[in-house]
Amino acid sequence: MMPASLQGPLVVVADRPAPELSNALAKAGAFPVVDATWAGAAAAIGKIEPAAVILADAHTSPSAAPSRDALDAAVAAASSIYMPVLERCRAAAVPAVAGALPLAVDATPERIVARLAVALRVRTLDASVRRRAETLRASGGEVPDLSTYDPIEDATVLVVGRGRAYPELSVAVGERVGLIGALSIETTARYLNARDVDGVLIGDGFGPKMVEAFLMLLAEDVRFRDLPVCAVSGTAGVINDGRLPNLDIAAGTPAEVVARMLPLVRQHALSARLERLRLAVEAQGMIDPETGLFTVSAFLRELQRAVADANQRGGGMSIARFSFDPTIDRRTSLDAARLASRLVRSADFACRASDGSILMVFSETALRGAHVVARRIASILKHTMLTASRQDRHIDPSITLAALKDSDTVESLVARVNDTAAAAAG
């Protein structure tokens, strides 16, 4: 949904007047809006430090290369807070600004405004997280790391298809980001409910009516309205539905389709990272922003309290360690931990140790009950997670369980699930 107003200032770059876009921005409450030519865009950005930049007309002239270079440099230097750049460009064209969010050459002003609104929500979240982190730091709290690496390293794209182009699309995606493959719309829907994804690429092999029905289902679910979705075929009715502002109908080779989709995927992955950081800051640094689980230090503190409480009241408590094949890649390991964070019961708590294993404590739970819960979690991980190196191979976590004894300390309890895990946690 579009907000009541778009925070400014905004810079609209065009050598030709764009009155329809200006009117659409004004109608959405955008203020102030500064118009600039391509030659003057870099100076305008440096002067007013805009919230966003819109490159309103595709610029393909070779003589414009100096302007593009200056514009790219101005954007890079403009702000420490996320500043989105939206660019009208042809399907196979190289964006004038690296990482610019693509717009179709014939994108309507209303669609541009809708996509801008999504991008500005990410900027607002970025500013809010940084402000809260600074407040926490000033009060002496434990501030989570505000990661600076490229969000694309965290991104996962769901590719669905069953036609001849599906293998090439999967390879093109898998070379750049994490990949989840699906051969049917039904499987895609299940993955969307079970996994955190940063984009959906719909390949060939489906009829237009099936694609349109799936896109409308996405549009009706508020969880997916900002999700980047790219389809190799579709209908004008769906593309003009304002509820899916990050939907594109693709054209070109698989590599070109993926390249055009990646900036939107990167933005979604950034938004997901910022949301995890927000939760970590609100938890006073107790939550690991990479996984959503407790940090190791917070886990050990909570375990110390849980052991003391269980010994005092005589209640049961169990601990489980989920370990994985050491050859799985970092992305898969983190993805498994993020999925586990969604499976932890409200009374329980967990962390990811430095060796990639997951330690999970089951409060008020005897060993037999803990075994049932742990097997259920392991089964979900096994049937949901795929390794990045071989997309047809599921991960299969091993489980080690231990129940709290009267003589146990935190160290002895953790050591009984795995000595190396105890050393890693310590």
Write a structural description.
With 426 residues, this protein is α/β, with parallel strands linked by helices. It has 3 domains: 7-141, Rossmann fold (3-Layer(aba) Sandwich), CATH 3.40.50.2300; 151-263, 3-Layer(aba) Sandwich (Rossmann fold); 291-425, Alpha-Beta Plaits (2-Layer Sandwich). The protein is 45% helix and 16% strand. The protein is built from 14 helices and 14 strands. It has helices at 19-27, 41-48, 65-78, 109-138, 166-174, 185-194, 208-220, 236-239, 254-282, 296-313, 330-343, 367-384, 410-417, 419-425, and strands at residues 7-13, 31-36, 52-55, 85-88, 101-103, 156-160, 178-182, 199-202, 229-231, 247-249, 317-323, 349-352, 358-363, 398-403. A 5-stranded parallel sheet has the order 2-1-3-4-5, with helices on both faces. β6, α5 and β7 form a beta-alpha-beta unit. α5 packs across α9 (254-282). The longest helix has 30 residues, at 109-138. The chain is globular and about 80 Å long. Mean pLDDT is 86; it is low at 420-426.
